[in-house]
Design goal:
By secondary structure, the chain is α/β, with parallel strands linked by helices. It contains 9 helices and 27 strands. The protein is globular, with a radius of gyration of 22 Å. 45% of the residues are buried.
Length: 429
């Protein structure tokens, strides 16, 4: 992977992007295409490209590039695109702080600590994995407990196997993909144990990674204890009741030397919190407008730092919008204000963006709370009138729902709050 490390940083940039994954790189290109002359991307890894560099499986790029790519292939395309635009990319660098005047404090190997001014900032730091501590799994602390992403990095980038027989806690997509990957490398996967009554990964990964390899999936089941002194020797798993409480009388032991934890992602939002941005308690990311602008003028955010996506293609689409908005802000072009708030309603956990304008088209991303079939997605006015309705065959918490809203639907609403509901028949067992 080729990266561009400028020999000397400028004292100021039109746009500074924090994060050199697909979100940051796409945002940087869009910012320059919108008129920003000098754009800087800062990434803490040795090479730009983000988490995709360790995702060697296929399934990326169908929406963005119209063909199926591996993670490194997708990353290579967005890196080359950024280099073709002569965007400065600084790797092995850390953003220590951003103040309210959008001055970014950087630490690089070549220049030490620098203070660089920016007319606009794009936050694209991505997300981090939940760890064993987040699940509060009791027991000893032996070697052999990994997050699924760390195991993926060890296998795909360094060629190291984490163990010989593994159990996987959680059915997130990374855990499902690693169940297949470990099996292909000769590691026996004892099973995937999911706390919830439904899987938390995409249906295609359930089929391709578990069913096709005869790996058992135990729903409404969790790990309640880890055993071992120097190395994991076994784990105790137990089914849970309707309140997610383990039923210890039905627990059993699983022999293994490795436990992978795949229990979700958390937006990497330390910088967002330092800036005291308004945060969404459900997504744990910043509240954003339809231009992906945060509560502090000139600060924009996109990708998994806002909310967790299931496809990188949607990350790219969101990043291009954020980058374009940041570029326009940097050159002094006015951004049209939003005049409608979107509120998550029945069976909707959250919706992004949080506000929209009646004057342009928008794509709204949301996640559902439960599995439903024969659904209707509804946009509901404050007086209870259904403004818009769309039929969906089913909805699933692990798969994001997209809604395209055109100005014709919104033309009669100004300074209103519209609610989004998803109603249907419950398909949960």
């Amino acid at each position: 992977m080729i990266t561009s490390n400028p020999r000397h940083l400028r004292g100021s940039y039109d746009v500074i992007v924090v994060g050199g994954g697909p979100a940051g790189l796409e945002a940087a290109v869009a910012a320059q295409e919108a008129g920003a002359d000098h754009v800087l991307v800062v990434d803490r890894e040795p090479e730009a490209g983000g988490i995709l560099l360790q995702c060697i499986h296929c399934g990326f790029g169908l929406h963005r590039f119209g063909e199926e790519l591996t993670g490194p292939e997708y990353a290579q395309r967005v890196v080359k695109q950024a280099l073709a635009h002569r965007i400065d990319i600084v790797t092995d660098a850390f953003v220590l702080d951003i103040d309210l005047q959008r001055r970014v404090k950087l630490m690089t190997r070549e220049e030490g600590v620098s203070l660089v001014e920016a007319r606009a900032v794009v936050l694209a730091m991505g997300a981090r994995e939940r760890t064993r501590a987040a699940a509060r799994i009791p027991g000893a602390r032996p070697a052999g407990v990994f997050t699924a992403g760390m195991a993926q990095r060890l296998v795909n980038l360094y060629g190291w196997l984490p163990g010989r027989r593994a159990a996987i806690l959680g059915s997130g997509d990374i855990g499902l993909i690693m169940a297949r990957r470990l099996t292909l490398e000769g590691v026996e996967v004892a099973g995937v144990f999911e706390l919830m009554p439904h899987p938390n990964g995409l249906n295609r990964n359930i089929v391709q990674c578990l069913h096709d390899f005869d790996i058992p999936l135990h729903l409404s089941t969790t790990v309640v204890e880890i055993h071992g002194h120097n190395r994991v020797e076994k784990v105790t798993v137990a089914p849970v009741d309707g309140d997610l409480r383990p039923q210890m009388e039905r627990a059993w032991e699983v022999e293994c030397d490795t436990l992978l934890v795949s229990i979700g992602l958390i937006p990497e939002n330390e910088l967002s919190e330092q800036l005291r941005l308004r945060m969404d308690p459900v997504t744990r990311g910043p509240v954003v407008t339809s231009a992906m602008e945060c509560s502090l003028n000139g600060v924009f955010a996109c990708g998994n730092v806002v909310h967790i996506h299931d496809l990188v293609d949607f990350v790219s689409a969101e990043a291009m919008l954020a980058g374009r908005s940041a570029g326009l802000f940097a050159i002094g072009a006015p951004l049209r204000p939003d005049n409608v708030r979107l509120l998550p309603g029945e069976n909707v956990a959250y919706c992004v963006p949080h506000t929209i304008s009646t004057e342009r088209e928008h794509t709204v991303y949301m996640r559902t709370r439960r599995i439903l079939e024969g659904c209707r997605l509804r946009l509901v006015a404050p007086d209870g009138r259904i403004v818009y309705e769309k039929r969906l065959r089913y909805v699933f918490p692990a798969e994001m729902v997209n809604l395209k809203l055109k100005p014709a639907i919104l033309q009669h609403f100004h300074d209103d709050a519209l609610r989004i509901d998803i109603v249907g028949r419950s398909a949960e067992r």
